Amino acid sequence: MPELPEVETVRRGLAPAMVGARFTEVVLNRPNLRFPFPPRFAARVKGQEVTALSRRAKYLVAELSSGEALIMHLGMSGRFDVQLPDGRHVSPGDFYLEGAQGQSKHDHVRFALSNGARVVYNDARRFGFMDLVPSADLSTCRHFAGMGIEPLGNELSGETIAQLFAGKRTPLKAALLDQRLIAGLGNIYVCEALHRAKLHPEAPAGSLADAAGRPTQKAKRLAVVIRDVLTEAVAAGGSTLRDYVHTDGSEGAFQHAFRVYDREGLACTARGCRGVVRRLVQSGRSTFFCEMCQPG
């Protein structure tokens, strides 16, 4: 599933075509994706201007002039193709993923905009979805109610991590993946962050707070590392695994910088380390780590 950096990359690719433009045509090629489209979806979107395009966790949010917000989720394989009037595609990324284009049978939503741009949503597995909610109700809508802090926002700090994790015996990796605590972190970047922070994925989450609930040095280090990993991944255009591509069909590059993820049996890349990357399964997900760098 595309994680925060991939969704942020898509947002940046969509923004030049969508923000400030008005939807002149909305075509649905099927009545549903993961869920049915909202009632009168096309009619409610058509004619509206996109006043802003933001990201919340792994969701895209387009603010409309009608006072509604168009919420979009990529699911497992969703992607947007953006074409400007002169034929150029807009999106960061330099690596083309062979075979990712030309799947027109999976083009489920087509948008035409007043600036001449065209945006197509393609989703082979149809786990993505689109919804419309009043902009004033975004924070309390069913998608965002109870959602945790943004890991790239100002709230993330060692102090915040200590407060969120204090007293929890949950494995550290599971706590980091809990969207009610920190929103947007996914399996790939949690594995990478824990390796850089030299923390074992099975360590109790509460170990990052001392007896008084104050942050340990580990908590402070983890907060810095999470931000660094996500920032580097966004700069690289995300990571391409299987069929994730940008809005121009290009491939993210961060997978070339993985230190542990999907590197089972390979030598640890940390300087001076002679360890080997191991894999364990936590809650049905693969966790990659180095026992030498990340002692229990």
From TrEMBL:
SUPFAM superfamilies xrefs: Glucocorticoid receptor-like (DNA-binding domain) (SSF57716), N-terminal domain of MutM-like DNA repair proteins (SSF81624), S13-like H2TH domain (SSF46946)
Stretches assigned to the FPG-type domain: 259-295
An example molecular function term from Gene Ontology annotations: 8-oxo-7,8-dihydroguanine DNA N-glycosylase activity
Keywords assigned: DNA damage, DNA repair, DNA-binding, Glycosidase, Hydrolase, Lyase, Metal-binding, Multifunctional enzyme, Zinc, Zinc-finger
Domain of life: Bacteria
Bound cofactor: record note: Binds 1 zinc ion per subunit.
Cofactor: Zn(2+)
N-terminal signal peptide: none
Annotated positions binding DNA: H106, R125, K168
Formamidopyrimidine-DNA glycosylase catalytic domain boundaries: 2-128
Any single Pfam family the record assigns to this protein: H2TH
One GO biological process term: base-excision repair
The enzyme's E.C. designation: 3.2.2.23, 4.2.99.18
Matches recorded under InterPro entries: FPG_cat (IPR012319), FPG_Glyclase (IPR020629), FPG_N (IPR035937), H2TH_FPG (IPR015886), Ribosomal_uS13-like_H2TH (IPR010979), Znf_DNA_glyclase/AP_lyase (IPR000214)
CDD domains xrefs: EcFpg-like_N
Catalytic activities: Hydrolysis of DNA containing ring-opened 7-methylguanine residues, releasing 2,6-diamino-4-hydroxy-5-(N-methyl)formamidopyrimidine; 2'-deoxyribonucleotide-(2'-deoxyribose 5'-phosphate)-2'-deoxyribonucleotide-DNA = a 3'-end 2'-deoxyribonucleotide-(2,3-dehydro-2,3-deoxyribose 5'-phosphate)-DNA + a 5'-end 5'-phospho-2'-deoxyribonucleoside-DNA + H(+)
Active-site residues (renumbered): P2, E3, K58, R285
Assembly and interaction partners: Monomer.
Function in brief: Involved in base excision repair of DNA damaged by oxidation or by mutagenic agents. Acts as DNA glycosylase that recognizes and removes damaged bases. Has a preference for oxidized purines, such as 7,8-dihydro-8-oxoguanine (8-oxoG). Has AP (apurinic/apyrimidinic) lyase activity and introduces nicks in the DNA strand. Cleaves the DNA backbone by beta-delta elimination to generate a single-strand break at the site of the removed base with both 3'- and 5'-phosphates.
Protein family (similarity comment): Belongs to the FPG family.
HAMAP family the UniProt entry points to: Fapy_DNA_glycosyl
Protein name, per record: Formamidopyrimidine-DNA glycosylase
